[in-house]
Amino acid sequence: MQISETSKRILADLLRSQTGQDFPPNRRWRVGTALSGLCREHGIANLDSLIAKLGMSQRSAQAHTLVEALLNNETYFFRDRAMFDLLAGRVLPDLAEARASTKSVRIWSVGCSSGQEALSLAMLFAEQESRWAGWTIDIVGTDVSTSVVEAARSACYTQFQIQRGLAVGQMVKWFEETPQGWRAKEKLRRMVRFEKHNLLDPPPNPAHFDIVLCRNVLLYFDDVTRARAFERLAAVLAPDGWLLLGAGETSLGQSDRIVPDRDLRGFHRLATSARAQRTADLPRRAAG
């Protein structure tokens, strides 16, 4: 389905105002597919009429519905398995040593979609039970989409979703089949919480994190907005923390406060100057 230039401007303005995301030409190819369901729901035959009707007011519930339909919520369990292997084998052991006195780990999953990334993290801790016994593991997942945050809070997945990224043994060990689908067991659910949140807004509690995953989020921003996002991420990352970006994302040339880790591909750290500033700004974590 084709849309007019006017409709493209309406969609671009809506996305930018509600999410901060850009709407370049290479993102417009899926508009027809994304909005076809709304066309059927409202009995409207063409996209221009739909966009004109729902996008009249940027703050209306209808406009929000339009934006939600445009968001890319693609996710699955243990997406980019190599990254999770590095987390389990390299990062978490270092973190266990660094946080031995507080026994507290705080992780932020930005753009969490329906929660598979956050629950994958919870499984890493649950599968190393003896190492993390007595620790407080706080994993917060956030997304700009109301509908996917609600889905994440349910922690319930279809047969198709549960099979994407999970071995049969993991599925049976950490999920239970219910009439509504496969639901994460309590051991995983008590480690995670989900909130509607925009990365460009003030951070969620506790406002500083040992690990931040912001994968396949920054690629939807223009250069100016991406720079703002890096500032937000640098401001919440612990001085010795890790930031994980998507395969097509980097901090090189984008931020002077965050730099790629020399040893772990896809992992980023605070630059030396930013690390010193964060150390000076943060209160001591004696209470965890």
Topology at a glance:
Layout: H1 5-19, H2 31-42, H3 47-54, H4 61-70, H5 81-98, E1 104-110, H6 116-126, H7 129-132, E2 136-143, H8 146-154, E3 156-157, H9 159-163, H10 168-174, E4 175-178, E5 181-184, H11 186-189, E6 192-196, E7 209-214, H12 223-236, E8 237-245, E9 258-260, E10 267-270, H13 272-281
Parallel strand pairs: 1-2, 1-7, 2-6, 7-8
Antiparallel strand pairs: 3-5, 4-5, 8-10, 9-10
Domain CheR-type methyltransferase: 1-267
Protein name: CheR-type methyltransferase domain-containing protein
InterPro entries: Bact_Chemotaxis_MeTrfase (IPR050903), CheR_C (IPR022642), CheR_MeTrfase (IPR000780), SAM-dependent_MTases_sf (IPR029063)
Helix-residue proportion:
40-55%
CATH topology of the largest domain: Rossmann fold
What is the mean pLDDT?
92
User: What sort of overall outline do the alpha carbons produce when their principal axes are compared?
Assistant: globular
3D structure, described in words:
The protein has 13 helices and 10 strands. The protein is α/β, with parallel strands linked by helices and 288 residues long. It has 2 domains: 66 residues, Chemotaxis Receptor Methyltransferase Cher, domain 1 (Orthogonal Bundle); 201 residues, Rossmann fold. The strands form 2 sheets. It has a 7-stranded mixed beta sheet, with helices on both faces. A 3-stranded antiparallel beta sheet has the order 3-5-4. β4 and β5 form a beta hairpin. α1 packs across α3. The longest helix is centred in the N-terminal third of the chain and has 18 residues. 37% of the residues are buried. The model has no long low-confidence stretch (mean pLDDT 92).
